[in-house]
Every structure is written in structure tokens, then in C-alpha cells.
TrEMBL record:
The gene is aroA. It comes from Alcanivorax quisquiliarum. Catalyzes the transfer of the enolpyruvyl moiety of phosphoenolpyruvate (PEP) to the 5-hydroxyl of shikimate-3-phosphate (S3P) to produce enolpyruvyl shikimate-3-phosphate and inorganic phosphate. The chain holds residues 3 to 290 of 758 of the full protein. This is 3-phosphoshikimate 1-carboxyvinyltransferase. The keyword Transferase applies. The keyword Oxidoreductase applies.
Amino acid sequence: QSAPLFGQVTVIGLGLIGGSLAAALRNGGLAGRLVAGSRSARTLERGLAMGLVDAAYQDLAEAVRGADLVFVAVPVSAMADTFAAIAPALGRHTIITDGGSVKGPVIEAARQHLGVHYARFVPGHPIAGKERSGVEAADAALYQRHRIILTPTEATDPAATAKVRQLWTAVGAEVLDMRPAEHDRVLAETSHLPHLLAFALVDTLSRQGDSTDIFRYAAGGFRDFTRIASSDPVMWHDIFIENRDAVLAAADEFAAGLARFRAAVANGDSEALLGTMTRANTARARFL
Ligand code: NAD
């Protein structure tokens, strides 16, 4: 095995996203030492028992001491407190990056709480995940052949961005750069809106009488469309609230499309119906 890419890597928030990076770094021999900081003692015990990290601390400042790179993977609403807790213990060269699903508010939290270390903060978002959460769901292969979006700002040191790019490339991911606002707008459309629709659809149907009865008659289409309604409510609560403006814009856009579709059905407008679905077929074919 070649020399590790990093000395100490600390993961704050050892859940699906943080635990999977720790596992991938461990498997690749990419970190000299792996340390976790997380809120719950049980998570840390599990992480140690699974062999994901060499040391684990509930005290987040203790966890980042001596780290060359810190990956923050807590829920988006916990980022500000986390940055405030680790800032005093960060080194002069420590690179800080994150995996939060919304970038604008996380960048603002970092700017407010990381102090001089903000220049070495590289905002990021792995476009990888699953419906399961928690350290038990950690998967060393999660990031392989998946995309990572980095959204550096004018304040971000390009050398820090290059190092974080190296990190993700080393675990098999493809790294893309985006502006933070563009990231939040695009993800609102391609990820946040579909989750909103899936949650709303399943909830709406399940309120209509006996839900087990409805779901008994559901087939593959329903399963495919609603898979993401099993996603973690706490995580998604944070995303909808933190990316509110972009989510509302996407929801309004969709509501207008739904109204057009509904009108076409109501009016028996075959041309409008076939036109809409044919355009959707063509667009979907380009995605596959
Ligand atoms: P998770 O629930 O599996 O893990 C979160 C971890 O953070 C847990 O170990 C929890 O104990 C810890 N934690 C929670 N609050 C904390 C606090 N205040 N201080 C310290 N630790 C705390 O969630 P996850 O799916 O790994 O998501 C983590 C981050 O990654 C979120 O910001 C989420 O938006 C982002 N993300 C998730 C996915 C996904 O599909 N799950 C994909 C991309 C990005």
C-alpha cells in the first residue's frame, strides 16, 4: 500500500455520510489516523467496534485536535454549532470540508463560526446516499462512481479545494465544481422537489382510510415513485427549511405544471396530454 494521502482525518457526525467516508479511507489506506467526533456515545462505540475509526470523542474540539482534514457530516441545522465547537481546536493548516445537502446556509454558518479557518473551508455535497441512515448504514463503496459537488467561494484557498478534490477522487468519486446558489437551485429541482412529492403523495394516500389496503393494490410504479419517502424525516426537515426559497420556487413551478396537466385531463385535451408525456419521455431518455 502507498503512503497515506492524509495524516489525521477527523469525521464529525459518524452517520451514513461520515461513516462511509471513514470506511472508504480505511479500506484505501488513505489516512494515517482516523478519528470520529459525534454527539451520541452509542454511535461512537459502534464506529469503533466496526473498525471505522481509531479514536472517538463526544467532545468535538477534542476530536479535531491534530487533524489535517476535518469532514463535517452532521445534519445541516447542526452545522453552525459544530463549526463553533471545533473552531478553537483547529490547526493553522487544517482543511475543513462538509457533506451537507444545502450549501448557502452551511457556507454562511462556516463564515460566521470558523473565524480565520474559513479560508480553508471547502463546501461540498456528495450526490450519493440511501434511505437508511446512521453509522450501521456506513458503506465503503458508497462514493464509488458517484459525483461530489464542491462549491468553493471567493474566500476559499484553491490549495484547500485541490486537496479535497484529491480526497474524493481517491475514494473513487467524480468531482464537479458549482457555484453555491446554483447548487441549491439545481438540487431543489432534482432532489428536494422529488422528495417533497414522494413524502406528500404517500402521506396523502395513507390518510385516506386504511393505508394497508391502498398499498396492497400498488404495483412497481408506486414502489419506484415513492422509494424516497422512506428517507430520514429529520434530515429532510432541515433541507426543506434551510433551502426554503429554492424549494418554494421549484414547488411553484411544479404546481403550475400540475395545474396544466390537470386542465388537460379535465378538458379531454389529447393534444396537450400526449405532448406533455412525449416531451417527458424524450427528456427522461436523455437521463438514462
Ligand atoms: P445520519 O443521521 O446517518 O448521520 C448524522 C450523524 O451526525 C449521526 O452520527 C448523528 O449522531 C450526528 N449528529 C447529529 N447531530 C449532531 C450534533 N449536533 N453534533 C454532533 N453530531 C451530530 O445522517 P447522514 O445521512 O449521514 O447525513 C449527514 C449529512 O450529510 C447531512 O448534512 C445531510 O444533509 C448530508 N447528506 C446526506 C445524504 C443522504 O442521502 N443521507 C446524501 C448527501 C448528503
